[in-house]
Design a protein that fits this description.
The structure is a single chain. By secondary structure, the protein is an alpha+beta fold. The strands form twelve sheets. The chain has a five-stranded mixed β-sheet, sandwiched between helices. It has a five-stranded mixed β-sheet with strand order 15-14-19-20-21. Strand 19 and strand 20 form a beta hairpin. The longest helix has 29 residues. 34% of the residues are buried.
Length: 820
């Protein structure tokens, strides 16, 4: 960990720190080597006479006569002896290691010494009469990673921003080089302290004499910027924004102040909740910077300045590091748990864990990188071989097949008279494909697809497969938190003992929080494994609310101003009663949010914010899709909207909490067509096919919707997008899209006995669909109507056969079975 030492305004304190810190001693060694090199150069080229600028900059490499060396050595020796006495009386004979306290972004701090070992973090409480708050939020102009103490002293509340702007404050030490005050320049503090200080970067390939002039110009420019005060931002503003994007927040700030304020591209879609009674705009902008770790850039001239909110590259890199650390820890914990739990049982899951525990190092590397690892008994079709004894046990655990008319189905019950165990088949074999998948909040899960097969007298290759969950571990960012313990210093702060009693009013009215779960289709379909309607695991905690609803109720009950982040996630609606401190702690614990308080503000930051940011779907897209759905004549989202949904990143589409919010709060059930977070198999077929439609030019898109697209006219690259590269070039393609909530004809046709009819019959009621079916096909049986939760079917017309992929809108096979 690189030393993040503070800027000391005392040479003695700076020297003491450098004597203790390994990093600083190394830096001093480098500086000494550079100084020696410069002295050698100056021996042949004497430096010019010192100027006033040299004295102001206090350059560490300034020309020093050799006659001062003994005095410097004597001073260093004296300071070292004094430092030894200080260590002895302060920490005992054992001394003290240099420690850096690291925050994981959620407010939890881990102290580590120079050798990397953990040290319990010390809690430094604020002095009496000084407000303090938990530093669980990002630095003003950086990332939320490094903190010196668990509790920090925040600026005192300001009665009037004009008092703060009164000149005459003490200067603050900054550095043009990023080094401590020893090599830095004494510069005044930014009077608009929410604005990022200007960067002073300069270089020269000419003579060394140019550098002092360039440094002087940079210092003067900084002083001019530091002295600027934009009086337009002193005026009070009021805000009441729930789940508003930073683009909307900046637009509202600009409207109320008349100042040009905008959001940069990397923060424009970040959502926030702000409830502000009446505060100066500059104070609101400062709090946004503190809570989110963003920076404000200022441009323009006096009286016409503009402000732009953005996130620094350093902050983005630190968030990526937090995610990588979470993933590494999750994978290690998952691997340790699976290997310690493997046994000699004949259960399929336990046998899969046994296979996992015997993976080679290169296979583990492929698995960690997100690639599947295929093992089996046939070396020609797999990357590795399964131990023969393990494969025999897997075949026994898979059972066999059960004959039914002209087909068969897999079965575990090999005692059935119609069952044929795999162990009695000719050339039996087993394939096992392992895959590791990251969860929504940085956890990891390990799944396997297992296929057993063999040869019988009737079927050259008979077998079946099944998915198996081997293990799963939650992410570090989702672990439980204890706000009451973390914020213990705030319990006795004025106002925290106030009695409050409220029940948040949810954004979605209770009357609209109904559930369609339980209305099953006419037969088990693959879609039911991951449907937001049919899967019990994909239901929100009804009745539900959002964190925005909670913060709004807190603001209305206390009058306190609120700044908090806002993500797509639903929580159990509850009633809150008691002291404000206890209500905040209990409510935020349930929502996995860290809260803090200072200067009358209540601030909230989600513990897993650095994961939720990359999972979030831009609000403007959700608004646009909702508008399209309302304007469509039948009240559903057109297929163009579904295609646009599929263009999002896989992380966004696989985020279960985001999907629950989109389906239940934004009322967009079409999301379930391309988002199936519980899909148990390795390859989910619908999403690639929808993306295939999005890659087609407009004329080919219309042709496939009309069931007239010739495969020969489609590029090979587009076919590979949809996983359709194996289709015959002489085939014709068509697509059927049944929006959620509609009823449709869902028949099964006997192979060789019935003509396959691909008519798409859709209606608002099952009776309407039944009537239309019997008008066209009077001999069809009843009960072939299914309620759609979003069906997307690709139909392949190839020579004399019709095939389907995706959601099987109709079945082709034998009665009681469905196939292709």
């Amino acid at each position: 960990m690189k030393c993040r030492r503070p800027f000391y305004n005392s040479k003695v304190r700076m020297l003491l720190h450098c004597l203790r810190c390994h990093e600083c001693r190394r830096d001093r060694a480098v500086e000494s080597a550079v100084a020696n090199t410069i002295r050698q150069v100056r021996a042949t080229n004497p430096p010019p006479a010192p100027t006033d600028l040299h004295a102001k900059l206090r350059l560490s490499v300034a020309y020093e006569p050799t006659r001062r060396a003994p005095k410097v050595a004597l001073t260093l020796g004296t300071c070292a002896i004094l430092f030894a006495f200080v260590l002895f009386f302060q920490n005992g004979t054992g001394g003290r290691r240099h420690e850096t306290i690291i925050s994981n972004g959620s407010g939890d701090h881990v102290s580590r010494s120079d050798d990397g070992s953990a040290i319990p973090a010390k809690v430094e409480h604020a002095k009496p009469g000084v407000k303090s708050g938990l530093q669980v939020f990002p630095k003003r102009h950086g990332s939320p990673v490094v903190a010196r103490n668990q509790f920090v002293v925040r600026p005192k509340a300001r009665e009037d921003e004009l008092v703060y702007l009164n000149p005459g404050r003490y200067g603050t030490t900054f550095s043009l080089t990023g080094m401590p005050t020893k090599t830095g320049v004494q510069l005044p503090a930014m009077r608009d302290d929410f604005v990022a200080p200007p960067q002073a970067l300069f270089a020269s390939i000419g003579s060394p004499e140019e550098l002092p002039e360039m440094a002087r110009d940079a210092m003067e420019k900084y002083k001019q910027e530091a002295a600027v005060v934009d009086s337009r931002l002193v005026h009070n503003i009021s805000l009441a924004l729930k789940h508003a994007s930073m683009k909307e927040v900046c637009r509202e700030l600009s409207r109320q102040t008349g100042v040009r304020i905008s959001a940069g591209r990397n923060v424009a879609d970040e959502n926030a909740t702000l409830f502000v009674g009446s505060r100066p705009a500059r104070e609101v902008m400062r709090e946004i910077s503190l809570v989110f770790g963003f920076i404000w850039d200022r441009e323009g001239e006096d009286g016409a300045y503009s402000y732009r909110l953005k996130q620094s590259t350093d902050s983005l890199v630190e968030e990526e590091k937090l995610r990588n650390d979470d993933v590494t820890q999750a994978i290690k914990s998952l691997t340790r748990r699976i290997r310690s739990g493997s046994s000699e049982k004949a259960d399929i899951a336990d046998l899969s864990r046994l296979v996992f525990s015997e993976l080679l190092p290169d296979e583990m590397d492929r698995l960690r990188s997100g690639q599947p690892v295929s093992l089996g008994t046939n070396p020609g079709s797999n990357q590795g071989m399964i131990d023969p004894q393990v494969s025999t046990r897997l075949l026994g655990a898979m059972g066999g097949i059960k004959l039914a008319a002209e087909s068969y189905e897999g079965t575990d019950d090999v005692t059935d008279p119609n069952a044929i165990p795999f162990s009695r088949m000719r050339n039996p074999g087993v394939n096992l494909s392992l895959r590791m998948k990251l969860t929504e909040f940085g956890g990891a899960g390990l799944d396997a697809d297992i296929e057993a097969y063999g040869t019988t007298d009737k079927f050259p290759r008979a077998g079946y497969g099944r998915p198996v969950n081997i293990g799963k571990i939650d992410g570090v960012a989702e672990s439980a938190i204890d706000n009451a313990k973390a914020n213990a210093a705030l319990r006795h702060v004025q106002g925290m003992s106030k009695q409050v009693d409220f029940k948040p009013i949810p954004t979605v009215p209770l009357a609209e929080q109904t559930s369609d779960w339980g209305r099953q289709s006419s037969y088990p379909r693959l879609l039911q494994f991951s449907s937001y309607r049919d899967s019990k695991e994909l239901q929100p905690p009804r009745p539900y609310m959002t964190s925005d609803d909670f913060w709004q109720s807190v603001h209305e009950a206390t009058g306190r101003d609120v700044v908090a982040d806002s993500f797509s996630r639903l929580f159990k609606l509850a009633e809150f009663k008691g002291q404000l401190f206890d209500v905040l702690s209990r409510g935020c614990d349930d929502m996995h949010v860290r809260w803090g308080s200072s200067d009358g503000w209540l601030i909230g930051r989600s513990r897993a914010y650095y994961w939720q940011r990359i999972n979030e779907v831009p609000k403007e897209k959700l608004v646009a899709w909702s508008k399209q759905r309302r304007q469509n004549r039948d009240g559903t989202l057109p297929i163009e909207g579904v295609i646009e949904m599929s263009s999002l990143d896989n992380r966004q589409l696989d985020a279960m909490q985001v999907g629950l919010t989109i389906v239940n709060q934004w009322h967009l059930p079409e999301w379930g067509i391309v988002s199936r977070p519980l899909w148990p198999f390795g390859f989910e077929p619908v999403r690639p096919m929808v993306r295939f439609l999005g890659a087609l030019p407009p004329d080919q898109l219309q042709a496939i919707l009309d069931h007239k697209l010739a495969v020969s006219s489609v590029s090979q690259a587009n076919l590979e997008i949809g996983g359709l590269a194996d289709i015959s070039r002489g085939a014709v393609l068509g697509v059927d899209y049944v929006p959620p909530g509609k009823f449709y004809w869902d028949p099964t046709f006997e192979i060789g006995k019935e003509e396959v009819n691909t008519d798409l019959i859709v209606g608002d009621t099952p009776e309407a669909v039944e009537d239309e079916i019997h008008k066209r096909y009077p001999d069809r049986p009843k009960g072939e109507v299914t309620l759609s939760d979003g069906a997307f079917t690709l139909i392949i017309y190839d020579k004399d056969q019709t095939l389907t992929r995706g959601d099987f809108r109709f079945g082709i096979g034998h009665r009681g079975s469905i196939g292709n």
